[in-house]
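Re: that chain you flagged

S.,

Sorry for the slow reply, it's been a week of failed gels. I finally had a moment to sit down with the sequence you sent. For the record, here it is as I used it:
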Amino acid sequence: MIRFDSTILCATLGVALLACGSNSSSSGGKDILDVFPRGGEVAGWSIDPNSAKTKDVVAKTGTDQAATEALIDGASADFFKSPFTPVVFGVQNYLNTTLASAPDDGTGVRVKLYVLEMPTAAQASSLYASLMSASLYAPYSEAGLIGEARWTDPSSPVVGDHSRVVDAGDTWWINFYKGVYYGEVWLTPSYGPKSTDYAQHDATLRAAAFEFATAVAKKM
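Prediction finished late last night. Pasting the C-alpha cells below so you have them in one place:
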C-alpha cells in the first residue's frame, strides 16, 4: 500500500516566493486557480484545515521543477521531463467528514489534487501517456509488481478527455486530462486514532473520488 503524506511546502524563502503565489497564464484561457474547487463547491468537501500551508489559499502553485519539488513529496522530475514544459503546477488538499465510509472518529477522508496546465493540449495528453513508464506509476501497469492492483480505463464515468484509475489498497488514484490540463486525484483515509476502521477497496469511496475528479474536469 502507498500512503501519501501531507504536502511539503515552501521550504525556503526563495522557493516560497516562486511557489506560493498564484499564477495566471494564458494557454488555458483562464487562471489555473479557477480549476480548483473552493470549499463546499463539491458537496461534502472542504479545504483541509490540517494542511497548514494550503488551508487559507485556493491552491499552491509552482512554475518550474524546483518549485514543484517543494509542493509535493518528490517525483516532480516526471512532470518536467523533456519534452514536457508545464506552464504551472498546482496542488490543494481537501477533507470530507460526511462519507459513510469515513473513519468514525471525525477525521474524515482526504483528497490531494494536482492540476498541471501544459502549453498545449497535445502536451497534456502526451504527459498522461508518458507517466505510465514513470517509476511511481509503472508498478500499476500491466507488467506491474504491486499485488493485483492495475490501472483500468473506466468506461463510466470517463473524466475529462480520458482517464484511468487504480485501487492502491488505501488510495483511489485517478489520472486524467482535458484540453491543456492534466490532473490527479488521490483519495485516502485519514490516519487518525481509528484509522483501522477504514474499509479498504471501498466502492463508495471510489465513487466519491470520481465525483470529485469529474467536478474538477468540468472546470477545466
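What I noticed first: Helices lie at 13-19, 65-71, 77-80, 121-130, 203-219.

Talk soon,
D.
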